[in-house]
Amino acid sequence: MAIVMSEVFLRRLSPSLAHFVRRQLDFRILSIHRPKEELRASLETMRPAGLITEWLPDITEFLIGLGYPTVVADSDEEVPGGAAIDIDDWEVGREAARYFLRGGHRNFAFLGNSLPYSGQRYAGFSEELQQAGIDPPTSYVEEEPSGKQYLEDLREPQADFFHWLEELPKPVAVFAAHDPLGRFLCEACRVRKIRVPDEVSVLGANDDPLVGALSFPSLSSVQIPWERIGIAVGEAMNNLLAKGGQGSKPLLLSPGGVEVRQSSDTFHVEDPVLRRALGWLQQHHRESVGIEDLCRGLRVSRRSLERKFNEYLRKTPYQALSELRVETARRLLVETNEPMPLVAELSGFGDAERLSVVFRRVTGKRPSDFRKRF
After folding, report:
1. According to the model, what pLDDT value does residue 205 have?
2. By Cβ atoms counted within 10 A, which residue in 143, 271, 274, 286 is the most buried?
3. CA neighbor of 82 nearest in space, from 91, 92, 72, 74
């Protein structure tokens, strides 16, 4: 089996692909950044049974054209005679919007690039905001330099980008299409002495520790289930080999939740009581608590608290609590095989029946259907 990938992408998938090595599938690795003719010659020498690669403009089309049974690990485009596995990028954007909305944000923006997944993530981000009655967010597109590798993102902000950033209404929540752009945004804010997260709350995507944890401030990010992607890639290749190269439709997997770090770790509401309430719900929503417990903890009347929630967030405290619990349940349904009663307990619902009722009210789907879909 030939793996033609960047080092970054291989690091993401290798723990899962090791499972297939133990099934006596031998792997040979080539850098996807090598010249095309070198890749062709190396593959002709290897004569692999199949090819696993990532998507890069121009290169991936060239590799598919060589005629090997091919699995593309991050594409939603159908591969002739092969298979494509990808994250649901629209859902990544929706996840980012839900996270910012729970934090009480009212102003939103998007920082993207010229690649297809960026537009899909913007579309999901906008759709979720529009469902909450918010206009599509302003956006800025940073062109991807040709030949640049993922971790070598050393671009310098241009004058028009600084103008866009400074004109954003503050405080603002900015979703960056991937982590290097989130880091780029944090650095630009530091240059212009714009406080993160107080004035600009920044959220990336991919949750890459070599980017997020080493950024300043550390970067919050939508989690991508690389382990599940790696498993799906290995299974797709097994199916291709078993069926003699018969292809399949692209498989889209759901993202995880948000890994919260310093770049977005704050609630953007002016009212101090409401800010404390959101923090209390975030901390205690997995427990068997209700709105009366919240009111006692804050020493505020329920009527007063409900008025604040309605005026600022256009929802009740109970709706906010339910949304947090549903979000936790969503992650458990996607990332674990735990039975419904345990998912209900771990997400604060208490029992599976209550989980089903509230989950369907918030998402429009039954928990079992959601798990099957994603």
Report:
1. 96
2. 274
3. 72
Bridging pattern class, strands 70-72 and 200-206: unpaired
- pTM for the whole thing? 0.80
pLDDT, tens digit (0-9, with 9 covering 90-100), for 69-86? 999 998 999 998 899 999
Instruction: List Cα–Cα distances, 256 to 30, 50, 206, 210, 364, in angstroms.
Output: 29, 29, 10, 18, 19
**Phi, psi (rounded to 5 degrees) for 52:** -115, 125
Contact 271, 312 (CB under 8 A): yes
| CB-based contacts of 251, cutoff 8 Å, min separation 6 | 83, 84, 85, 86, 232, 236
pLDDT of residue 146: 58
Give the span between the Cα atoms of 367 and 194, in whole angstroms.
42
One-letter amino acid of 180: P
SS3 labels along the chain: CEEEECHHHHHHHHHHHHHHHCCCCCCEEEECCCCHHHHHHHHHHHCCCCEEECCCCCHHHHHHCCCCCEEECCCCCCCCCCEEEEECHHHHHHHHHHHHHHCCCCCEEEEEECCHHHHHHHHHHHHHHHHCCCCCCEEEEECCCCCCCCCCCCCCCCHHHHHHHHHCCCCEEEEECCHHHHHHHHHHHHHCCCCCCCCEEEEEEECCHHHHCCCCCCCEEEECCHHHHHHHHHHHHHHHHHCCCCCCCCEEECCCCEECCHHHCCCCCCCHHHHHHHHHHHHHCCCCCCHHHHHHHHCCCHHHHHHHHHHHHCCCHHHHHHHHHHHHHHHHHHHCCCCHHHHHHHCCCCCHHHHHHHHHHHHCCCHHHHHHHC
Total residue count of the chain as it appears in this document? 374
